[in-house]
Amino acid sequence: MGYDIPSDHHQSLPREIKREEKMKKERYFSDEHIASILYYLAEACNKNAVEHGFWEDEDKFFRVIELREKFMSEDSIKKLKDRIISLFNSEKIALEMSELAERLETLRKDPEKKDEHCPEFLDVEIEVVDLIIRALDFAGRRKLNIGEALIAKMKYNQSRPYLHEKKF
Ligand SMILES: [Mg+2]
Q1: Which residues contact 21 (CB under 8 A, 6 or more apart)?
Q2: What is the pLDDT of residues 53-95, one digit of tens each?
Q3: How far is the CA of 123 from the centre of ligand 1 (A)?
Q4: How far is the CA of 29 from the centre of ligand 1 (A)?
Q5: Contact (CB, 8 A) for 72 and 89
Q6: How far, in Å, is the centroid of ligand 1 from the Cα of 127?
Q7: Which of 2-6, 36-40, 133-137 is predicted least confidently?
Q8: How far does residue 109's CA lie from ligand 1's centre (Å)?
């Protein structure tokens, strides 16, 4: 599908450069390329989260269930595993929401504030990234097809009417 650079971006560029930019954009940012970058990022964010213990408790619950497997029916095991997954899903979503709250707070207090751990960036930039990292970790863990889903949803959004026919 490719992505449209905002229309005013090219206005001051000579025609040849415009064409080169378009070719570069198509060569380096195909749908497949974007999707594979997302898969890579989801894997990388999940790997780091696993290495830092953020999924250890869920794994422990699964191991406990495995130990009890011969005393439980297949149906009970499945129900329990699904319940554990839904509880951890809820926890991860709550943590994503905490990153949204942190972004709101930093904008309320001081939008120009530098981040404490990465002082070359604004706090608000890091809070946006925190949210993305948490979402990618979740997608990586649950093996979600976010790469192709993002392309599909952006394509759909491009086809939607002004304000998606909502009030705002
Ligand atoms: Mg944060």
Answers
A1: 5, 10, 13
A2: 999 999 999 999 999 888 999 999 999 999 999 999 999 999 9
A3: 8
A4: 29
A5: no
A6: 5
A7: 2-6
A8: 15
The answer to whether 60 and 168 have CB atoms below 8 angstroms apart is no
Q: How crowded is residue 114: how many other Cβ atoms within 10 Å of its Cβ?
A: 14
Q: First vs last Cα of the chain: how many Å apart?
A: 26
128: CA distance to ligand 1 center in Å?
8
- Read off the DSSP letter of residue 27: H
- From ligand 1's centre to the CA of 38, what distance in Å? 21
Radius of gyration of the chain (CA): 21
Do the Cβ atoms of 43 and 140 come closer than 8 Å? yes
Instruction: Write down the pTM of the prediction.
Output: 0.82
Tell me how far apart the alpha carbons of residues 150 and 140 are, in angstroms, rounded to a whole number.
14
Q: How many separate helices (H) and strands (E) can be counted in the chain?
A: 6, 0
Which residue blocks in 52-160 are alpha helix, DSSP H? 56-68, 74-109, 123-141, 146-158
164 class by beta-carbon count within 10 Å (0-12 exposed, 13-18 middle, 19+ buried) = exposed
